[in-house]
Amino acid sequence: MITLPDRLAWSVQRRLAGKPVGRHAHQFSEGRKEPVRIARFSIDGNVAFGAVEGDRPDELVLDIIKGIPFADFELSGTKVPLAPSDSRTRVRLLPPVLPNKVVAFGRNYADHAKELGNEVPDAPFAFFKPSTSVIGPGDEIQYPSFSEDLHHEAELAVVIGRMCREVPRERVKDVILGYTCANDITARDVQKREKQWARAKGFDTSCPLGPWVETDLDPSDLTIQLTVNGQQRQLGRTSEMIHSIEDLIVNITEAMTLLPGDVILTGTPAGVGPLTVGDEVAVTIEGIGTLTNKVVKRG
Ligand code: MG
């Protein structure tokens, strides 16, 4: 797990000399209301977590976290602007977590199952996307050489906050750190011709996540939408899920242990469709934000 060395906080403070720097960190305990948005980012080659402050995209500020968001942590009071126009710092958002595994559920929205000619499953069914498939906001989706039919799938992602297994339904909320946007990029032609989906859904760059983890959110009825080059392709609500987030976490933790930072993808609403090289694809979920990625040819 990557934590922020004190010397980094010190160097950031120096670089921002002249800016107000908080002297007293805030202690948050379990059940905290704030901060609600936790980002992972790099600054001048170092990696840290930060609490995102502000509303307008060009005014966002990261308050650097001392410690890790999977335990009690403190805000350092050292703040760096996220805006790309700011030249004093080179801040870049990273995938908000580095999961040990991404567990993705298929056919969890009836309209999507129907559009691909599939039956709605009686029970949830899961597959894996490997840790090496994860990329962050603004990173490039590399069109794989072995596919000619790459598809987008906008999904609500659940970020696990603590090690857990055999989680009872009433304890599910206790194991969730928060929620982020995901795009379950799929080589549809490969998915159709290969029995297992390891290559079709697990190739490098096939799991964009971000832009940050929203920790204070009711996920039961959120708008989820996806655009390609600004044109809407997918639109749904999380209330249309066949199996709830509780169902999915009970189902998977019957079988395996989830670790802090693991990610659960909850299925995609109708409207999946092809991506081509050069496309800009954006997933927006109400209450979280927008995850944008560009499709490039794999070099
Ligand atoms: Mg999917």
Summarize it.
The chain is mainly β.
The number of domains is 2
Could you say what the CATH topology of the largest domain is called? Fumarylacetoacetate hydrolase, domain 2
Structural class: mainly beta
Task: List ligands, each type once.
Answer: magnesium ion
| Overall pLDDT | 88
Strand element count: 21
Rg from C-alpha positions? Answer: 19 Å
Q: What summary fits the major beta sheet? A: 13 strands, mixed
Question: pLDDT under 50 segments (min length 5)?
Answer: 1-33
Terminus-to-terminus distance: 30 Å
CATH H level of the largest domain: which superfamily? Fumarylacetoacetase-like, C-terminal domain
* Helix and strand run: HEEEEEEEHEEEEEEEHHEEEHEEEE
CATH class of the largest domain: Alpha Beta
- Overall 3D shape: globular
Number of helices: 5
In CATH, the architecture of the largest domain is Alpha-Beta Complex
Percent helix among the residues?
10-25%
β-strand amount: 35-45%
